[in-house]
Structure formats: structure tokens, C-alpha cells
Design a protein that fits this description.
about 0% strand, about 90% helix, single chain, rod-shaped
Length: about 140
Amino acid sequence: MTLNDVRDEIDGLTAEVSSVAADLVSLLRLERELAMAEIQEQKRLAVRAAGLGVAGLELSVLTSVFAGLTLVFALATFLPDWAAGLIVTLLFGGLAFTAAMAAKNSIGGVTIVPRRFFKSVGEDFRWARGLMTSSAK
């Protein structure tokens, strides 16, 4: 192997490494855009869930007030007023606890960590490592 052959091979490897580096920079830019899009998507889901939760809460408060009054008046026909009020209060307390636990469980699906982004970046680095290893052979 002559000196010119070695130089040509070094130039070829330099060009491949430069190409891989440029591809990696381009991929990282795309990954950044993917991460931003994923964060925006999760933000939209969280805002929507919060809006629906507030609307549901307001309507349930109004319904609960009128249902509670109806129940108190119905129970007061054969119980003392204080007993009817206590029964309805305990019933509504149990319903409020159940609703709070359901809300706590449903918010668990929202995440601020861009999982697809991290998975994609890992794949990109494995791809780049594979290119570097195959180029070295």
C-alpha cells in the first residue's frame, strides 16, 4: 500500500465521518422538534382534562345542592330534620371522596417527560454508533 492509497483512504474516512456528523446534527434537530411537539401534545391533553374537570365540578356542585335539598326534605318527612341533614351530609361526603379518588387516578395518564423523544434519541445514537463501527472496518 502506497502513501497515496493511505491518504485516499483517510480522505474517504474523513468524508464518511463528516457525513455521519452532519446526519447526526440533522437528526438531533428533528428530535428537538419531536420533543417540542410531544410536550405541546401533553400540554393540550392536560388543559383539556382540566377544563372538562372544572366544567364537571361546577355542574356537579349545582346538582348536588338540589339533590341534597330534595333528599333532606324527603327524609325529613319521617326523621327529625337534624338526622335527615346528617344522613345527606355523610352520603355526599362519601360521594366527594369517590370523585376525588377517580380524579387522582385519571390525572396519572398525563406526563411531562417526552418519552418518545428519549426513545428516538437512543435509536439515533445506536444508528450513529453502528455507522461508525461499520466505517471503521
